[in-house]
Amino acid sequence: MRGMPELPLVVLVHGAWHGAWCWAGVQAELDGRGVPTLAVDLPGHGASTLPFTDLAGDAAHVADVVARAGRPVVLVGHSYGGAVIGEAGGQGDVRALVFVAAFCLDSGESVARQTDVSYPPTLAAAATVRAEGLLTIDPAQATASFYAECPSPAAEAAVARLGPQPVATFVQPATVAAWHDRPSTYVLCSRDNAIHPLHQAAMSERCGEVVTLDADHSPFTSATTAVVDVIERVTRAAAAAAP
């Protein structure tokens, strides 16, 4: 509409073992609401032909996407993707961050260090380290860990797409914590079996806003409209607040 500020581009960053494919439902709903999106495949994941890297490499890839966008951006990260947007979000015209059941790291912290805390164990039981430094998820446990509240066909399709994840992405510490300087929203999922809700609650205190969903670890499928509502609101607020 003439006279309305241009909406930032929503850049969607997937979590470990996943790819840009996991955001398809969210993108479809945001398209219908006129909110522009771009779902990123991190190096080595989904359709990417790039080699696997570490947290710094994944963040550099997202920062390059932000730079090439040539417009304001809202970064959305799911699970491990939260660590990526926290590292990448300090560069470029990033107007806001949205952490979806995600790791919200401070400088010097790693995903592994944040996981090694006094919360009930969740994802660790489903992950196996291979000799080549890659983590894989046991398909028999993936549904319970990631997609417990998702329709069975969608969960089965997602499990079939899961790939390996470099251990390096979990053990390398963050050097930037963009949530210190950018408006940030945390979407806490109260039925999560991958990152315990109490663990999410502790990390969410770092964000300016917390939204709690009665959802599993994959609300982009199990609570799509609720996630889209948050992203749209944050994006339109970022546009309205633009100088």
Task: Present the secondary structure layout.
Elements: E1 9-13, H1 24-32, E2 37-40, H2 55-69, E3 73-78, H3 80-88, E4 94-100, H4 111-115, E5 127-129, E6 134-137, H5 139-146, H6 152-161, E7 165-166, H7 168-171, E8 184-189, H8 197-204, E9 209-213, H9 219-222, H10 224-240
Parallel strand pairs: 1-2, 1-3, 3-4, 4-8, 8-9
Antiparallel strand pairs: 5-6, 6-7
Helix pairs in contact: 1-10, 2-3, 5-6
Give a brief rundown of this model:
The protein is an alpha/beta fold and 243 residues long.
Describe this structure in words.
- The protein has 243 residues and is an alpha/beta fold.
- Helix content is 37%, strand content 17%.
- It contains 10 helices and 9 strands.
- It has helices at 24-32, 55-69, 80-88, 111-115, 139-146, 152-161, 168-171, 197-204, 219-222, 224-240, and strands at 9-13, 37-40, 73-78, 94-100, 127-129, 134-137, 165-166, 184-189, 209-213.
- The longest helix has 17 residues, at 224-240.
